[in-house]
Amino acid sequence: MTKIDALRRFLLPCFSPATAASAAAAPHHTTKKRISTSLRDDFPDDAVSSKKDPQDDDDQQDPDSSTSTDQSASLAPSRPSKTMVIGTIFGNRRGHVWLCFQHDRLATKPLLLLELSVPTHQLVKEMKFGLVRIALECTRPEFRSCPLRSVPVWTMNCNGKKLGFAARRKVSERNRQMLKTMQSTTVGAGVIPAGVGSPEEVMYMRANYEHVVGSANSESFHLINPDEWEGQELGVFLIRSC
């Protein structure tokens, strides 16, 4: 027997069992890959927070959205307020026109009482055309902060023509007697004989007006036409431009 055969005889048994044992043991340690259906709890906190329910986000965003809605509502321009008032135009035939607005025809204190510099006969002439626009404008800076209806003096324009001034007046005893004489009249026009609250005949026209408050610097009164005055348009505008 040669030395090589002897080595093969003694060394091969040493290597073969280990190889077989490792080959036999290999299948025992081999694991199959399976899909896990259990919930994992090893996610990092950031990942968990990023997978929150969208409904929670909606709930958290609701206060902000409501706040933004409230802010947008507060920034929206206010709408003009509208009320119904009674307006009376009266004056002596050879005198000047008075303009009175009341919340109630029985009230002794009017909402606004103005004496216009336009003569009565001239205003009657303007009204024959069916359209009258009386614009009273305040341009004096010293009256910028007072309430609009408390402005004492106005520049007057009638149908685009400058016709002097208008002055705010307190109710005198003569005015009060005149308004008391017309308390029974809701809507209408006519002549009050001399001696009834005035030494001369007084022409008057009373109707309902729509009072519109646009802002602190603009108000207007618009005649609501009764059936017998169809086609008559009359508006009084208070404007502060200073």
TrEMBL record:
GO terms for biological process: hydrotropism. This is Protein MIZU-KUSSEI 1-like. It comes from the Eukaryota. PANTHER family: PROTEIN MIZU-KUSSEI 1 (PTHR31276:SF6), PTHR31276. It holds the Pfam family DUF617. Residues 63-72 have a biased composition (Low complexity). Residues 20-80 are annotated as: Disordered.
